[in-house]
Specification:
Elements lengths: L6 H8 L3 H7 L28 E5 L2 E5 L26 H13 L5 E5 L7 H11 L7 E6 L1 H4 L7 H13 L4 E7 L8 H11 L4 E7 L8 H13 L3 E6 L14 H14 L7 E5 L6 E3 L11 E3 L5 E3 L1
Parallel strand pairs: 2-3, 3-4, 4-5, 5-6, 6-7, 7-8
Antiparallel strand pairs: 1-2, 8-9, 10-11
Helix pairs in contact: 1-2, 4-6
């Protein structure tokens, strides 16, 4: 994956943010010698019925709008794909995605991901407007890192037009916008202003976070982050154990440390400010919650949603 950093992120790095630098700058001399998989979640190899869609769970589908982002996070699960044209959808491919969703009445929840859906506002606007026409789709979610990557882009007409479309669709469907934030340094004043613009669409705001070694694997930093999000009316939703994808092994924390941190945070935070700690099972079907240390037991064996016992 090529290094790609926006001027906004460069300014934060220049001001001394180690957390931003660690997430976006290549590490000199680093070689990933892990035996991790290129596609640890089986998105292409197991669960993609048509290009652009991942249908892992019965009632919901992941719609990968593209593989393009304003900046490239070095810990990205789709490390091998981000920044390439491989995920670009032709008009025919987009129609196939819509046809698949329309033909599967069990799908009531569509998650737009990528890449970053807000970085490709024209395509995302078209997809939103088409999804709004499908009666059995009740919930639409947009996963984005765009406010963190490029907050000043929210002044552009294309992004404003997309947010207007979100507001219109939100009158017909339940709309969520999930903003990916990993560290308090990412919540700069212009980022907060961009988040306020999203809030005006009346979409429900939630946040997802990833445990990243050397970035946020500590009690104090995550307590600060989750409190700040909560005070911004953003509900912390998930905190993920970093996926074991080839190229990103340097970010993977130990589950033992993560459990200790999450146990301590549960003592300090309101339930509404406390996210669910999960492992997205490799090649599996479930985001399995990680138990806290209030209960005995330290097994690394978990049961996937289909009953398969997996060692993590």
């Amino acid at each position: 994956m090529k290094e790609r950093i926006t001027p906004h992120l460069q300014r934060l790095i220049a001001r001394g943010s180690t957390a931003i630098r660690e997430q976006f700058k290549k590490k000199r001399g680093y070689v990933d010698r892990s035996d991790f998989d290129d596609d640890p979640l089986g998105e292409e190899t197991r669960y993609s019925p048509v290009k652009g869609l991942v249908h892992k769970f019965g009632n919901r589908v992941l719609f990968k709008v593209s593989y393009r982002c304003a900046a490239h996070c070095r810990f990205c699960t789709r490390f091998r794909q981000i920044g390439t044209s491989d995920g670009d959808l032709s008009t025919e491919e987009m129609h196939k995605c819509m046809a698949y969703i329309a033909e599967h009445g069990e799908i009531d929840d569509v998650i737009l991901s990528g890449g970053d859906p807000l970085y490709t506002p024209r395509d995302t606007k078209v997809i939103l407007e088409e999804l709004a026409k499908i009666p059995h789709v009740k919930v639409i979610r947009i996963g984005t890192r765009f406010p963190v990557h490029s907050p000043d882009s929210f002044k552009s007409k294309l992004v404003k037009d997309l947010l207007h479309a979100v507001r219109i669709v939100a009158k017909k469907k339940v709309m969520f916008v999930s903003i990916h934030v990993n560290h308090p340094d990412e919540l700069a004043p212009n980022v907060i202003r961009a988040i306020r613009l999203i809030e005006k669409t009346r979409a429900i705001l939630v946040c997802q976070t990833v445990f990243l070694k050397g970035v946020n694997n500590g009690v104090a930093v995550l307590e600060d982050l989750f409190k700040k999000l909560y005070h911004l009316r953003i509900r912390p939703y998930y905190i993920y154990h970093c996926d074991k994808a080839k190229g990103i092994s340097r970010y993977v924390c130990s589950l033992k440390q993560e459990r200790r941190i999450m146990t301590e945070l549960r003592k300090r935070l309101s339930g509404l400010a406390y996210p669910m700690h999960v492992v997205d099972i490799p090649q599996g079907r479930g985001k399995v919650p990680v138990p806290l240390d209030f209960w005995n037991g330290n097994s690394r064996k978990v049961v996937d949603f289909d009953g398969t016992v997996v060692k993590i």
